[in-house]
Every structure is written in structure tokens, then in C-alpha cells.
Write a structure and sequence with these properties.
mainly alpha; two-stranded antiparallel ribbon; 2 strands; flat
Length: about 160
């Protein structure tokens, strides 16, 4: 259901949305609270109220632009028509350097993974030590309580005559 925004532009959102780009009590309250808490939040809410109906157009434009950049970037990385400079020696050197950097990055990623595995093992060992210490203290406390519980029961047996 399309409703009309206060600026006259159609609002394409849900017809009973509490937070929509319009001057509603909820959005005004959020803007005021935003200014009181941290002024950029209030400013962001004001911008949303004023220009939020254009947000979908903006998002689709940004997506188209970033998709174009991604396509150009991926074409430039391979042996495509954009990657050639016309100088074969330079292109060969650049390709060798890029391959060297990829190999270096792969080695760094392997080292990072090994280091993270080492840290996980250290954490596991520390956790195991803490758990063992807990269990030892728990058994010591439980052992003392069991002995204390057994002593009164023995004294009860002595006080109760056998029939």
C-alpha cells in the first residue's frame, strides 16, 4: 500500500510502520532522544525523517556503483584486456610480483591459523588446569563433608539401643 509522505513523495514501506521517514510522534521522540544522548544520532534521525523516502533509490544506486567497481577490479586482476600495459617486460614483472605477494599472503594466513590453533591449545590447557584445581578442591570439600556426615551418624548409632 503506497501512502503519501509529508513531503508529497510516495512512501513505499509498510502502511502501519512505527518508524518511517515521516514526522510521526515516534520519529520525533527518537530524534529528540538521539540529540540528548549523542547529537549525531539525532542528526541521523532528522536526515532519515527528511530524506528517508529516497533511501531505497540511494541504496540501489550505491549497489550499482559498487558492483561496477567490483567488476572492474576483478577484470584488472587477471590476464584480461585491462591488465595489459603494452609493455611485456613490465607485465611479466608485475605478474611475478603479484604471484609472490599471493604466496606471501598464503604463508601469512597459514602462520595465523597455526598461531590461533596454538592459542586455542593454550586456552584449553589453562581451562583444564583450572578445572582440575576445582575438582581437587571440590573433592577435598566433599571428602570432609562425607567424613563429618559419617561421624554424627556413628554417634547416633551408639545412642540408639539395639533391640
Amino acid at each position: 500500500m503506497n501512502t503519501t509522505h509529508t513531503s508529497g513523495a510516495p512512501y513505499r514501506g509498510h502502511h502501519n510502520a512505527w518508524i518511517r521517514p515521516a514526522w510521526t510522534p515516534v520519529t520525533i521522540a527518537m530524534m529528540i532522544v538521539g540529540f540528548m544522548v549523542f547529537w549525531p544520532l539525532g542528526l541521523a534521525m532528522l536526515a532519515y525523517i527528511l530524506w528517508g523516502d529516497r533511501l531505497e533509490e540511494f541504496k540501489s544506486g550505491v549497489n550499482r556503483t559498487t558492483d561496477g567497481f567490483a567488476r572492474n577490479w576483478s577484470c584488472g586482476r587477471g590476464r584480461g584486456p585491462r591488465s595489459s600495459t603494452g609493455n611485456v617486460a613490465f607485465d611479466d614483472w608485475r605478474d611475478a610480483e603479484i604471484e609472490r605477494l599471493r604466496e606471501e599472503r598464503r604463508k601469512l594466513e597459514e602462520m595465523r591459523a597455526e598461531f590461533e590453533a596454538h592459542l586455542r591449545e593454550l586456552r584449553r590447557a589453562k581451562d583444564q588446569d583450572e578445572f582440575d584445581a576445582f575438582m581437587a578442591s571440590y573433592k577435598a570439600e566433599t571428602g570432609n563433608k562425607d567424613e563429618d556426615d559419617e561421624k554424627p551418624s556413628k554417634s547416633r548409632r551408639k545412642s540408639v539401643p539395639d533391640t
